[in-house]
Specification:
The complex is a heterodimer of chains A (167) and B (436).
Chain A (H helix, E strand, L loop, with lengths): L1 H29 L4 H9 L8 H22 L15 H36 L10 H27 L6
Helix pairs in contact in A: 1-2, 1-3, 3-5, 4-5
Chain B lengths: L2 H17 L4 H16 L4 H15 L6 H14 L2 H13 L5 H14 L5 H18 L4 H12 L1 H4 L4 H10 L3 H29 L12 H9 L2 H16 L4 H18 L5 H35 L1 H11 L4 H16 L4 H17 L7 H18 L8 H7 L7 H24 L1 H5 L3
The chains are: A mainly alpha (167), B mainly alpha (436).
């Protein structure tokens, strides 16, 4: 899942770079600095990627939702543990178990609300401004990733509660 | 209970949750949701917000700069650039007293110019420089402290993930903040080098030197670092000159470092996969905190706490400088306990209205930039202050022979240099604002 998100991220980066190059060439060609080559390029429609902002906004959301399961799985969330480190192993594992359950509940809540949000976007047929890209597609892809994060967080909480996971 | 009281009540609750080891993003999210629930007498408001706000937070064009900078940093880590930067620094600085340690700081500064994270800088340079330092007879405590302190340059020297977040929170121009961080970043590197010189004179037995190299042999390693210089100039210069937006700059930087790493044959599939996975966990962690902070700050804004606090501080007639110093000291203390990103996201929405209402005889933009750089430095000091300086942990874990206490002892010199620098920048805002 995380690799998938990474793939999306890399695609976005390429899109942005192509868009910048396109924009620069387009600008130079319009200014007439590239001569006939420039005219040829313009005729081929070389320019910035249409709606790159919108693509990035949709893509980055999908990528980040796709990153959540791994963050959950590796327990990479930032915490403050100076005050609890003196408590010993047993209370700490109880605390960790408690938070992993709360985390799972919250992620499931987020996933559910995301689904409702998606239905709203679908119902009103909202699209992005420039390329008329239906917003609910991005919601749907994010929902799949969030669903994955829910499953992972429930799984982690279960592992912790049954004592199969201690870190 | 009035909304305002509810807002103030939420601080101790939030701190309690965080100190009970709740993931910080989760603690903020819970307080935000709970607060909205109580303040609006029901679940309707936060349930409606959850429908769209999570997606909107994650799909922000400005914030998309963060995963891209993270990926750029991880590519840089795998690119072998850390080695060439260290070699260049070593050949120019190595022969002085404490020279190898100075070279490490110089290399950290160089690597910080292509990496926006302190932890990554410390970890990467630690791997390259720590064995060298030990080989030339530097004591374990001195070596680890030097690298932990040098690592903080990663975030001070642009590009910097924390500055991006600060810029978004206070609605300032990212490019200007990057430029403003440049001189304080250089000052930091020079300050650390001076600290090393002093330390090496106090404890001469803890430091060794590298044989002096003729100038001819020094040029080659300098040439080898051109890719790093090129990327830095392209990204920071491009953003500053307005060739592209900060997000586009980050994309160009990630692409560029990726290509360099690929052509230096160090980016194979495993390294690529590692970079992606590390970017993934880092991004997931950061955005979860951003999400929590968004909800919590939404709730605080509803209760009017930031405005009330700001007008209260103004009413008391404190000198602006007193308030500023108190805030910075607060960050120093909090920095001993919490990571820098969470601190910024948690406190800037509360402190910035207070600071912007004070009269320092500067424009709001200047105050924002100056305050941002000061805060950036003090939260970074948190990375090297005992007991929970993350950089100390990372570097110390690389050197099995050195006890944590030895690192703690030596790092206090660098903390001293940081504090002096903060005082200097506080007294002379012009140092930060010279290019603005």
């Amino acid at each position: 899942m995380a690799l998938l998100g990474g793939g999306v991220l890399c695609l976005l980066i390429c899109t942005v770079c192509v868009s910048i190059i396109g924009r620069e060439i387009n600008g130079l060609a319009f200014a007439g600095q590239l001569g006939s080559v420039g005219d040829w390029l313009l005729a081929r429609g070389v320019g910035p990627v249409n709606g790159d902002f919108e693509l990035i906004e949709a893509g980055i959301a999908i990528a980040i939702f796709a990153f959540l399961p791994l963050t959950q799985l590796t327990n990479a969330h930032a915490k403050v543990d100076v005050f609890t480190s003196g408590l010993g192993a047993k209370p700490n594992s109880v605390i960790a178990g408690f938070w992993s359950v709360v985390m799972a509940i919250i992620i499931v809540l987020i996933t559910w609300r995301l689904f409702v949000g998606m239905q709203d976007k679908l119902r009103y047929g909202e699209t992005t401004f420039l390329i008329q890209f239906p917003i609910w597609w991005a919601y749907a892809a994010s929902f799949v990733a969030a669903l994955c994060a829910s499953v992972v967080s429930i799984y982690c909480a279960a592992l912790r509660l049954t004592g199969h996971r201690t870190i | 209970m009035s909304d305002l009281a509810l807002g103030f009540m939420s601080f101790p609750v939030l701190l309690l949750l965080i100190f009970l080891r709740a993931p910080i993003g989760l603690a903020m999210l819970l307080c935000g949701i709970g607060g909205l629930w109580l303040a609006t007498d029901g679940t309707t408001v936060f349930m409606a917000r959850l429908k769209f706000e999570v997606f909107t937070t994650f799909s922000s064009y400005t914030l998309s700069i963060i995963p891209m900078f993270l990926l750029m940093g991880h590519f840089a880590t795998h690119s072998g650039m850390s080695q060439s930067i260290f070699k260049a620094a070593q050949s120019w600085l190595g022969q002085r007293i404490g020279g190898m340690a100075r070279a490490s700081v110089g290399a950290c500064a160089g690597f910080g110019a292509i990496c926006g994270s302190s932890l990554a800088t410390a970890a990467t340079m630690g791997k390259v420089a720590l064995p060298e330092l030990r080989k030339y007879g530097y004591s374990g405590g001195f070596s680890t402290a030097t690298l932990a302190a040098g690592g903080t340059l990663g975030i001070l020297i642009p590009p910097s993930v924390i500055l991006v977040i600060y810029a978004i929170l206070t609605e300032q121009n990212i490019a200007k903040l990057f430029v403003a961080a440049f001189i304080p970043g250089l000052l930091a590197a020079l300050g650390y080098m001076l600290t090393i010189a002093i330390y090496a004179r106090i404890y001469p037995d803890q430091a060794g030197t590298h044989p002096r190299l003729p100038y001819g042999e020094r040029v080659k390693p300098l040439i080898a670092i051109w890719p790093a210089l090129f990327i830095f100039a392209l990204v920071v210069g491009g953003i500053y000159k307005g060739w592209f937006t900060p997000t586009e700059g980050a994309a160009v930087g990630a692409m560029g470092t990726g290509l360099i790493a690929f052509f230096s044959r160090s980016l194979n599939w495993t390294a690529f996969r590692d970079s992606i996975l590390q970017t993934a966990t880092g991004t997931g962690m950061i955005f979860f905190i951003i999400l929590g902070a968004g909800f919590y700050n939404g709730f605080l804004a509803l209760t009017q706490v930031p405005q009330e606090l700001s007008s209260w501080v103004t009413m008391q007639g404190f000198s602006p400088w007193t308030v500023m110093v108190l805030i910075l000291v607060f960050y120093l203390i909090l920095g001993c306990l919490m990571d820098s990103l969470s601190m910024i996201l948690l406190t800037i929405p509360i402190f910035w209205p207070v600071v912007s209402a004070l009269d320092f005889g500067m424009t709001t933009e200047e105050v924002a930039i100056w305050f941002g750089i000061l805060v950036l430095i003090v939260v970074e000091v948190g990375l090297i202050t005992p007991p929970v300086g993350m950089n100390l942990f990372i570097i110390n874990s690389m050197d099995k022979e050195t006890p944590m206490t030895a690192t703690y002892k030596a790092v206090l010199f660098f903390v001293g240099s940081d504090v002096l620098r903060v005082i200097l920048l506080l007294m002379f805002p012009a140092i930060t604002l010279v290019f603005i």
